[in-house]
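User: Please predict the structure of the protein below. I'd like the answer in structure-token form so I can feed it into my own downstream comparison script.

Assistant: Understood. Taking the following sequence of 186 residues as input:
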Amino acid sequence: MPACEDRAVIDLDPRLDDLRCRLARDADLASLVRLRDDAARRLLALGVTGQWQPGELGEDHFRRIMETGEVWLAEAGGRAVGAWELWWEDEDAWGPQAVPAGYVHRLMVDRASVPPGTGRRLLRAAERRVAGAGRTLVRLDCLAGNEPLTAYYLGAGYRVVGRKEGKPQPGGTPKSFTLLEKALAG
């Protein structure tokens, strides 16, 4: 895993007032769980029942990812309003890869606190972090059959490159996922 950037803060679009991203710390664990659970409840309200469940991941999950990868927190007005995980490998979904990539997981925003398009801005921040680490690909996955989410990532410049059946899940039974990737400008 490459070291974190010298500057562990990513400035987003300045038109977003004070929205900033930084590496999460132990003090942020409760906020990360809240963001994840709120996103899970929103998915359920939209009828997406197979993706995330409230209470499925706790502080221990995010602490483990902070030890093996990166967890980024987006803040506005002194409040956590979004987050994502960045992994430097994901063999459970992608197997061994010849071209190193960054793997974005659990992109989430507090939709009640941020304007539309904030998730896309966070995704671009993750892509900049991956490029800053010298990697030329960003990869992610989403629940197979979640067409709105797949369309969201296609609209952000990703392309479908495969499907993973039975990927182990930190909070439950294995699920099938659509694999997507995006080449970064070098």
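That's the full token string. Strands lie at 9-11, 20-23, 70-76, 79-87, 102-109, 137-143, 159-169, 172-183.
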